[in-house]
Amino acid sequence: MEVPVGTLLSDAAQQAGVDILMPCGGQGRCGRCAVIVKEGAVHRRSTQRLSPDDVAAGYALSCQTVVTEDTVVVVPLQEKIERRLKESKRAEKVELPFPYAFDDQPLRKVVVTLEPPSLEDQTDDWSRLRRELVRRYNLKDVQASLPVLRRLGSALREGEWTATVVLEMDAWDRPEGPPRIIDVLPGEHLESLWAVAIDIGTTSNHVWLVDLVSGKVMSHKADYNGQIARGEDVISRIIYASKGNGLQELQQLVIETLNRLIGQAAKERGISTAEIYKAVVAGNSTMIHLFAGIPPESIRLMPFITVVNEVPSFPAREVGLGINTEGTVDCLPGIASYVGADITSGVISSGMCDEREKLTLFVDIGTNGEMTLGDCSWLIACACSAGPAFEGAGVVHGMRATEGAIEEVWINSKNYEPTYRVIGGIKPRGICGSGLISLLAEMFVAGVVDKSGNVDLTLPTDRVRQGEHGAEYVVAWADETAIGEDITITAVDIDNLMRAKAAIYAGFSVLARSVGLSLSDVGQMLIGGAFGQYINVEKAIQIGMLPDMPFDQFHFLGNTSLRGAYMALLSREMRQRVNEVGQMMTYLELSADNTFFDEFNAALFLPHTDLEQFPSMKELLEGR
Prior knowledge:
Blueprint: H1 9-15, E1 34-39, E2 42-44, H2 52-56, E3 59-61, E4 65-67, E5 72-74, H3 78-88, E6 107-113, H4 125-137, E7 143-144, H5 146-158, E8 162-168, E9 180-186, E10 194-200, E11 204-211, E12 216-224, H6 234-241, H7 246-269, E13 276-283, H8 285-292, E14 314-315, E15 328-331, H9 341-350, E16 360-365, E17 368-374, E18 379-385, E19 405-411, E20 418-422, E21 430-431, H10 433-446, E22 464-467, E23 470-476, E24 487-490, H11 491-513, E25 524-528, H12 537-542, E26 554-558, H13 560-570, H14 572-584, E27 586-587, H15 596-602, H16 615-623
Parallel strand pairs: 7-9, 10-13, 13-15, 16-25, 18-27, 19-21, 25-26
Antiparallel strand pairs: 1-3, 1-5, 2-4, 6-8, 8-9, 10-11, 11-12, 14-15, 16-17, 17-18, 19-20, 22-23, 23-24
Helix pairs in contact: 6-7, 9-13, 9-14, 11-15, 13-14
């Protein structure tokens, strides 16, 4: 067909009878109208939501691209566009930044064959074993616990005096210590050596089963933390732990969750959990305390001090963890009450210490927003309570990011009609954290709410109305949902989201100011955590949750806490580096900083009271 030079590709498609979905009303904000320019030249007014690779492949936003000469354009199937955009938000795989060497492992298996005892040789089994370990492997002063000694005699006799001894050599925290026997197996068993890396999150627990011979992750299991039944956030769990046998109950709940995951992983690989000889554990300070059965009350009481930031390693039997009872449990070190091992391990696994020329802001966003600023010659950290809104709690139709959750929303600014994407492609049951961020941003940009978050009830649409909880916006009508009722976002929900995003941004601002810098000095922002990898950067900037930086300066890394535990499991050097990060990091207690309250109040607007901090939003709003 023929169109004048300067015609939008979306208009040309409409004239050609080709329907291109534009949920944002053609404002170039959703990226859903992408097409492929096969031949000819076009002028792209905007490439938002398109990566440089997308542009190089010919992708263009049809609502932001005009015809300049004869052109051939392919409109992909909508499902393919959705899938491509959805995948672009997922965390990229982070490779280990070092070559794995099994020789670096403190765990060892060695085979010994002993001379059987006789009437002429009355040496006891333990002395006989120690004598052979010295003779064959030069292992002196080997130690063993009473449970190991109880199994020793039967193992030697069952293997007809040939046995495989599992030893922990010079562990990172006791390099001069004597070797310790963890297990004695009858016969020869050198084919594998198993361990687990564990992340204890407030919401979810993750377990990686690792073959230490190859260094590979052989199974990954995850589930919700069983402690959720006794509290959505760390504060509620600390309070519960202080009552009656609450501490023992919470410890048992997380141990049951982890043991179930370890059991599933072991079964998948056809091994016994008794063959797993080590666990490296990361988590926030409260989770580590509860896991170890240490009373956490002091964490929430002035002056907010942990019982211990660096828990000494201990055998698994002391907490009931479902690996070999004598297997070592190594909890990575934390910094303070609200900056834990998930951050020290995350700093190492994020690679921020590998690029010291860049000022980096590393953040793990969840119920708490934990953040670290620095270049690894210095580091400063703080934490702010974002509340459970981003986990879907405290919101009328909020839910976790499971099947049936609305994960992204677009609103047409011409008629205020929404389009949404649901996890699993089924009828929606609610809205998860990423969906709430997306929804609030779209409502603001489309004019459904003002900068204070107030819903405009004068708009010519029945999507806005007065509800039971005040003014609200209807995202999905009852006949579209799986719950048989309208899914809405209310004034109370918006207020909770505004407070959560304000707390996070205020934390960024105070952290930078405390060292004489501003957020504009930050060279890159690394976002960890399971929730972080699903955040839409553009929408998070639009509501003022993330700094207004170029998109290519944001990097989503997924579960950095778990990867850090994995790296510490494989390498004594990496384990030592986690410890060094903990010792280097300065903790800033925001409740003791007089400027935090002012920064928090300034951030209680969309996107902020100072629009100069959000130039991209200033330009967009002025254009509107």
